Amino acid sequence: MRCVVLDDYQGVALANADWAGLDVTVQREHLADPAPVLADAECVVIMRERTPFDAALFARLPELRLLITSGMRNAAIDLDAARAHGVTVCGTGSAKTPPAELTWALLLGLARHVAVENAAFHAGGPWQSTVGADLAGRTLGLLGFGHIGRAVARVGKAFGMDVVAWSQNLTADRVEPEGVRLASGLHDLLAQSDFASIHVVLSDRTRGLVDAAALACLKPTSFLVNTSRAAIVDPAALVEVLRAGRIAGAGLDVFEVEPLPLTDALRALPNVLATPHVGYVTAANYRTYFTEAVENIHAFLAGEPIRQL
């Protein structure tokens, strides 16, 4: 089976699984149009949502039989189009802890101005130029309280923070056992938050949920962290409040277009602490992704596909 692995940015796909007996080609650079490279591919392995697979792309890949994504959810795959073109789509396991850990890396980095002080240290700049924000006694607001949201909440409690949460179907009986309060709504959640962190799944209901009116509820001293999906936040409204200083800053790991264009306004804002969508990028997760991708290929070749989406 001719297999292509796309978007292996770190060049680690082959080292993280046993690909013996498979005809594998690895693409490290992101391809704006992957169709020419995939023209004769029977199997494609993709990393999360780095390369979208829409109906138009499936139509250009007549040889494709198997598409494998890391994780068991990928909003960038048109599953109806895959079925229409006879393509089996499978996923892999994915740990919940790495995104929670990166959330805290961004939140702490914002609170203590780590990027600014580190840059000054290496450049021979001023010795201390910022004043950090305290965590103890401050309010951590969580939009979403699933596996990742709960993990973030527990760390917040360990720091002595007051933790409040909200999502459309969240109830008090789910949050109170964790020592977390339930906000009455999105605007109430953000109005209370010194640090607000997003942990809901992107869907029709959550797309654009954090709009200009919601962002206006945050205090000028508040920070927003998004390690979930960029489209949950209105991008123009976010740039506006950051540019105007109506919030203290944002920690971002997800973007509407990835890689983010060099001309994007977010790159020029000094109150943005950003990472290039690495919330899930850890050694253990990569071993799971590629090991299970190979398992998926062998199961498909045996006529018994596993982990189908």
Can you describe this structure?
The protein is built from 10 helices and 12 strands. The strands form 2 sheets. A 7-stranded parallel beta sheet has the order 8-7-6-9-10-11-12, with helices on both faces. Strands 2-1-3-4-5 form a 5-stranded parallel beta sheet. Helix 3 crosses helix 5. It is globular, with a radius of gyration of 21 Å. The chain is α/β, with parallel strands linked by helices.
N-to-C SSE string, H for helix and E for strand: EEEHEHEHHEHEHEHEHEHEEH
The average pLDDT is 97
What is the number of helical segments per DSSP (H or I, 4+ residues)? 10
Helix content: 25-40%
**Radius of gyration, taken over Cα atoms and rounded to an integer in Å:** 21 Å
Head-to-tail CA distance between termini: 21 Å
- Count of extended strands: 12
- Silhouette: globular
Please indicate the percent range of residues in DSSP E strands (runs of 2 or more). Answer: 5-15%
Uncertain runs are none
Structural class of the secondary elements?
A: alpha/beta
Strand order of the largest sheet: 8-7-6-9-10-11-12
Please outline the major beta sheet: 7 strands, parallel
